[in-house]
């Protein structure tokens, strides 16, 4: 696994970030980032959550993965982790502005285009494996699909 993403739920609210820098700058996304060497995916999900939002996740559950194929020649695997137990409060960081969003008001038109394909499955409680294709170094979304596991 190369990157992690944290789906943090608090009843009908989901934690999102407005990304201020790096890959996905200007998009709404979920906390996450690159998995460090010697780090487990679950640890990445909890570390990135703290770094990007200030929240302290207590348990991160693996609920699936997305394989991205970029420019037909690069593969990146992103583990998806569900966090329902956490402490603390959200705070703006150098990297992101965190916010709680109603799950019925997720701004899919301002997010990665693949998100609308898989986030609803996760919110419905499924574990998933997806494959998505991008070209032009992430700029153009080609498409892809998900299966429930
Ligand atoms: N297409 C798509 N959909 C949904 N989520 C993502 C993508 N592409 C992605 O890269 N991502 C996710 C994967 C990661 O969770 C983040 C990107 O992490 P990034 O900011 O590059 O990683 P950091 O380790 O935080 O980087 P630095 O800020 O330290 O440079 O988006």
UniProtKB/TrEMBL annotation:
Stored PROSITE patterns: NUDIX, NUDIX_BOX
CDD domains: NUDIX_MTH1_Nudt1
Pfam families from the UniProt entry: NUDIX
Reaction catalyzed: 8-oxo-dGTP + H2O = 8-oxo-dGMP + diphosphate + H(+); N(6)-methyl-dATP + H2O = N(6)-methyl-dAMP + diphosphate + H(+); N(6)-methyl-ATP + H2O = N(6)-methyl-AMP + diphosphate + H(+); O(6)-methyl-dGTP + H2O = O(6)-methyl-dGMP + diphosphate + H(+)
Superkingdom to which the source organism belongs: Archaea
InterPro entries assigned: 8ODP (IPR003563), Nudix_hydrolase (IPR020476), NUDIX_hydrolase-like_dom_sf (IPR015797), NUDIX_hydrolase_CS (IPR020084), NUDIX_hydrolase_dom (IPR000086)
Subcellular location: Cytoplasm
GO cellular component, one term: cytoplasm
Cofactor: Mg(2+)
The Nudix hydrolase domain, residue ranges: 1-127
SUPFAM superfamilies attached to this UniProt entry: Nudix
Record key words, sorted: Cytoplasm, Hydrolase, Magnesium, Metal-binding, RNA-binding
An example Gene Ontology molecular-function term: RNA binding
Enzyme class: hydrolase
Any one Gene Ontology BP term: DNA protection
Subunit organization: Monomer.
Stated role: Oxidized purine nucleoside triphosphate hydrolase which is a prominent sanitizer of the oxidized nucleotide pool. Catalyzes the hydrolysis of 2-oxo-dATP (2-hydroxy-dATP) into 2-oxo-dAMP. Also has a significant hydrolase activity toward 2-oxo-ATP, 8-oxo-dGTP and 8-oxo-dATP. Through the hydrolysis of oxidized purine nucleoside triphosphates, prevents their incorporation into DNA and the subsequent transversions A:T to C:G and G:C to T:A. Also catalyzes the hydrolysis of methylated purine nucleoside triphosphate preventing their integration into DNA.
Family according to the record: Belongs to the Nudix hydrolase family.
Protein's recorded name: Oxidized purine nucleoside triphosphate hydrolase
Organism: Saccharolobus caldissimus
């Amino acid at each position: 696994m190369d990157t992690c993403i944290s789906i943090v739920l608090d009843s009908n609210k989901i934690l999102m970030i407005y990304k201020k820098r790096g890959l996905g700058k200007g998009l709404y996304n979920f906390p996450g980032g690159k998995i460090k060497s010697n780090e487990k995916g679950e640890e990445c999900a909890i570390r990135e959550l703290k770094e990007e939002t200030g929240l302290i996740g207590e348990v991160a559950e693996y609920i699936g993965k997305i394989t991205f194929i970029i420019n037909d020649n690069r593969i990146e695997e992103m583990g998806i982790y569900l966090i329902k137990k956490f402490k603390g409060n959200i705070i703006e960081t150098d990297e992101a502005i965190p916010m709680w969003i109603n799950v019925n008001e997720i701004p899919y038109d301002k997010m990665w285009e693949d998100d609308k394909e898989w986030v609803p499955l996760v919110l419905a409680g499924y574990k998933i494996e997806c494959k998505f294709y991008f070209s032009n170094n992430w700029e153009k979304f080609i498409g892809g699909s998900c299966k429930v596991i």
